[in-house]
Amino acid sequence: MVLDSNTVDKIDVLIDGNYRDRAIYGLSRPDVGQTYPIYGNNNAGFKYTLNTRALSNGIHTITFRETGRNGKVKDESVRLNIQNPPAIGFIDDPTEGSKVDGTKEIQGWFLDGSIVDKIDVMIDGAYKDRATYGISRPDVGRAFPAYDNNNAGFRYYLDTRVLTNGKHQITFRETGRNGKIKDQSVQLNVENPSAKGFIDDLNDGAQIQGIQTFRGWYLDGSIVDKIDVMIDGQYRYRATYGKYRPDVGQAFKEYHNNYAGFDFKLDTQELGNGWHTITFREAGRNGAINDLNIRVNIKIYQLIAL
Fold this sequence. Notes:
Blueprint: E1 8-15, E2 18-22, E3 24-27, H1 30-35, E4 45-47, E5 58-68, E6 73-82, E7 88-93, E8 99-100, E9 103-111, E10 116-123, E11 126-130, E12 132-135, H2 138-143, E13 153-159, E14 166-176, E15 181-190, E16 196-199, E17 206-208, E18 211-219, E19 224-231, E20 234-238, E21 240-243, H3 246-251, E22 261-267, E23 274-284, E24 289-298
């Protein structure tokens, strides 16, 4: 309760010295009115619902700051020891060291006495994405009834094709509404099929002239992002990728790609006579690069006037 001979104007709530909210004032308190009749106020009660889940565990000072109509303030404080259940979590699938490829669903759960605010996904220590939280997990709710949460599950679809093959640390970073964080990590071994390709029409050492079309194919478990054309080590063009090649798809079914073909037209007059190395440099979505090289001998015949 609060009484003020100048009439109570408002009651602010401060937590650890910082303004947080405003209390409700004017609740019926005839007992207070009878005890302090000089104030002539039977509605001196106030109330405030404190959400302790927004605070870290430990000692906190809660202050109710009354301001009278004359602008004067008076504080009443109480120290509380907040002890909500700590954050806990687990990654159910996949398990530590699992081999993964393609798109892999990762499942687990988090519980936090402060309430889960978000779950960020970190790959090898760098932020990547956010997991979906709130999936029904009555088994977790039954196992940890103190948290009163049957929807503690999270899910994330990891596209391993944007990662290089090898070991990667996947971390799920839970942040509670009190700002505290808790990590759960799993190390996975990415094993997508490695990149491979072939130049179909020409053999190394071929003699060419005029407009020469190069055809071939590339497959990459990381998905082909682009194919640059290098001439004598210098970037010059970009090949067209995505041509229908069911023969390649049938021969290498693990890549699930019937459109692995590429082609490129070279105007040999732009280069002139002599030997040149043509490189088709494929870049996967994981940033890795792979080269196909062919050496060609350009022969441009000049017309001689008689």
